[in-house]
Design brief:
The complex is a heterodimer of chains A (284) and B (345). By secondary structure, chain A is an all-alpha fold. In chain A, 74% of the residues lie in helices and 1% in strands. A two-stranded antiparallel sheet of chain A has the order 1-2. Chain A is globular, with a radius of gyration of 23 Å. Chain B is of the alpha+beta class. Helix content of chain B is 24%, strand content 34%. A six-stranded mixed sheet of chain B has the order 6-7-8-3-9-10, sandwiched between helices. In chain B, strands 13-12-11-14-20 form a five-stranded antiparallel sheet. Classes of the chains: A mainly alpha (284), B alpha+beta (345).
Amino acid sequence: MRREPPQRLADYGPLFFPAGMLTVFFVVPFATMIAVSFFQREQGGFYTPAFVFDNYARFISLFFGKVLGFSLFLAVAVAIACVLIGIPFTYLLSRSARKIQIVWLVVLLSILSLSEVMIGFAWSTLFSRTAGITNLFVWLGLMAQAQALTPSFGAVMTAMTYQAFPYTVLVLYPALVRLDPTLTEAARTLGASPVKAFFTVVVPALRNTILATLIMVFIFALGSYLLPQLLGRPQHWTLSVLITDQAIYQSNMPFAAAMAVFLVLVSLALVGLALYAGQQRQAK
Amino acid sequence: MSGLNLNHVTKQFGNFTAVNDVNLSVPDGTFVCLLGPSGCGKTTLMRMIAGLDLPTGGSIELGGADITAVPTHKRDLGMVFQSLALFPHLTVGENIAYSLRIRGTPKDVQKKRVDELLAMIHLSGFADRSVAKLSGGQRQRVAIARALAISPKLFLLDEPLSALDAKLREAMQVELRQLQQRLGITTIVVTHDQREAMTMADTVVVMNGGEIRQAAAPVDIYRRPADSFVADFIGQTNLLPVAADSAGRASVLGEVVEGISLPAGAAKGMLSVRPEDVQLTAPGHGAIAGTVTFIRDLGGAIETFVEAGGTQVIAVSSPRNRPDVSVGQNVGIRLDPATSVVLAR
């Protein structure tokens, strides 16, 4: 269906409400944050309006550079892990019986109802020495002695992947359901084994969806600050942890704001780069 | 024994039997059409030949080897799907070269073969186009070229022309048949369009209810249908009840028709008469009595609907021999025994 483009100002009416909400709850707070990031910090937790670059200057150090690097690495790793597990899982799900699909989707959606705190403590219990899954391995005879799996990088990765997985499946599911099943059948009649057909037909045909999923999980994981604290060592703390620390415990709002602005800019740049790369490949 | 052989092939989905004990032998280089109404099992039968579905009973042989349990990608075949299933992320050339790339054929050999196939389907110079930018007929041709890239032993097409408009479909039928004859490749087409089957096939296999009703040359299917289903499904036909009278002579709609005989021992049957074999004459003199109820002038042919003994009989005549009748007129119907077929009731 093709409709006329809006002619008069009133035709844009339906857009005013979301635009207003976006302005009040996103543009204004974000602008405030940008402004605060240039303010001068006073001793005792206050700050006065000014236009100084001190906050950004302090940020440019090896320590914060490493934290930023680790945050980006963790977000990328979680995004890749989610997509690597999510694509085969969702593919098999979309090819299974309707009843099975519904059960799985309900279970996955129920994960979304869990708060980050609950997920964090659940995994820290599961990975603990006293009550964790290693006790099960010992009972099964796979391990000699129960041991703590947290704090560790693996624990952080596992919990964050678990948390982002439902979103991954929800983004991939419609695309995989819509994917014509005769495409893989055609590949098989042309001599591709089922696995080869999956990698030469299903994955490339879903390239744009996969890119969108990677970006979504990346941004989602970049904001995570509770799970790294609960399940990781200090070297596994992300920039979001430091921002929270500065804003709430150190009462250094201008510095926290500067880091937040920087984080937003870096992630926007990365997303832009990914989209650009995707378009270049498509144009080719 | 070479060619394709189906021995007692059966496919059950739960309690439903989609294909029931099908036996069929397709000699090398022949063109076979599986024809039948939707749900008759023809597509399931083709999917089993392709290995996309496994039979629950029986065996399939190709070129003398049992391929019943061989996975699809190891069977030497090419298939065109109803949806065509062209890969949207690949260009025309890449689509055609897919089966060669999967087999690790060198790049230059791939390119040569793609150019050859593009020339064959009259699409030279289209290799770098996106498949989304092709017309329906061009997409059809690309799907055919892709299936033929490795020169398979067996060429399968599942309702390949159903998405095309009527004119293009007719043209493609002829083109497909000519291509098959030139390549001499064993070809099986699934279709529900009997015109398509008659145009292309050496052998038409009429299926219904998961079973083969008749497998024969198009003319034989038309002229000597095996049962009333085949007679009714292929072209238009008049199915008239035949009964033996006290003297054992066959009587149709109350009139004895000379030259027609019921099989020994049968008291009743069905007579299949093609509309073009029905002759309208003056009433009486041993002709079946009827009344004209409707006349349809289609330009190229004139169909006269006659009601006789509670049964509707259709007569088709060419404009040259326009019958001199009008609606409501009493007429006589004469049947040609040579072209009429008595079927079991």
